[in-house]
Amino acid sequence: MVISICSLFFKSNSGNMLIKNLSLNETVLEKCILYFFKLSGIATLNFDFKLSTNRSKKFSSTFTRSKTGIAYNAALISLITIVTNYLIEFQINHNMYKNFYDKLDIGYAALISVTAVLILVKFSFQQEKTLTIANELNEIRDSLSLNDCSVDGKGHALRRFIVLVFLAHFLFLTILFSTSYVLNNTTINIVRTTLNYIAIYLSNFIMHSMMLQYSIILKLIEHLSRGINDDLVEFSRPPQGLNSLTFTKKTTSQRVGQLANLRKNFSSLCKVSQDVSEFYSWPMLLCLSCNFIAFVRAAFYIAMPIVHGTDAFTANIYVRCCCYISHNAFSLIILTKSVTASMTENRKTREIVNDCIENCDDQEILKKLEKFSCYLMHKKITFSVFNLFSLDESLLMSVIGSITTYLVIILQFQNNNAE
Hints:
- This protein has 419 residues and is mainly alpha-helical.
- It has one domain (67-142, 157-237, 253-417).
- It contains 13 helices and 4 strands.
- The chain has helices spanning 2-10, 22-40, 67-93, 100-125, 127-144, 154-178, 187-235, 244-248, 252-279, 281-308, 315-359, 363-377, 394-418, and strands at 45-51, 59-65, 384-385, 389-390.
- The strands form 2 sheets. A two-stranded antiparallel sheet has the order 1-2. Strands 3-4 form a two-stranded antiparallel ribbon.
- Strand 1 (45-51) and strand 2 form a beta hairpin.
- The longest helix has 49 residues, at 187-235.
- The relative contact order is 0.10.
- Belongs to the insect chemoreceptor superfamily. Gustatory receptor (GR) family.
- It is a multi-pass membrane protein.
- One of its GO terms (cellular component) is dendrite.
- It is found in: Cell membrane.
- Its main location: membrane.
């Protein structure tokens, strides 16, 4: 259902008569996204879409608290906790813990389950924070009137990004699920795989959904920043078709008010960006830790037979390891690229304001622009984890280097044990 509706949005500019009402289509897309995140347990919110009373006739959305969402999260937490404990107990009772591979699997199952539980707890107990962030982003978007951006393709690009990311997310999950029961033809393996489905794969689904949610929010912030920058560019030049004499008749007070509104939107966007960064800090620390261990674990399973020259694992395991690596790499790359794009678009505002200062002849507006420029010099959007490290694309090289280092250490440790 979600994929079919999102596919409809992917064709939103193709002339289909069913999707000419852009505001309605965006509303349906927002509902699909929110339902998906509610299913993942990371959207404990209710939403209400209303048609605005102004001439634009746009849909505005408002988020409110949801007790049902908190109860659903409590059920997920109980399910993951009980099944993970039973999975570990099951492996111990059947002597599936004596070799290094089984210990690695048990440790990873415990870590990713704890991560998923803490993420669900975070979104349940900090519901007020998520409400504030969601409603502030909606207010900025409504203020900028970005719902009419299909003409220049910006809205279409945002929808296309969301659809493609969701399709890739579902593709990886489908491959992981479909390869789980292959070659598991014993009762013990089937029971263990079923427990993995509920514990590890559900936790993995929650973790990657949260990273996907963060990436979409970052893309929305980039989208809003681009809207502010476009309005600033439009502010700096006279309307087409009017001579300079006609243009100067526009009252200074109107232009000052327009500039003040743009600065207010920019300040609000900086504030909500900082709130987003702080809110996702420790969940991202847990997710990146799980991602890192998943990278090392999957790479170890692939490299171990190559180093020892033995065929210790089945082809099914290799496929799953490659899928694990691809899925985690995809989520991490999308996240870091979204962070970099948001920060880059934010830095463009400073350049545009400086260009406005150079081309401005009105002294009152010039003073406002200079104050705005001074504000921009001391304000910068960053997305980090407790200021320990930034989540931009520079993180990728650090992760690759760390994975290589730890993989070599583990392989050497295994060689020493074998000797």
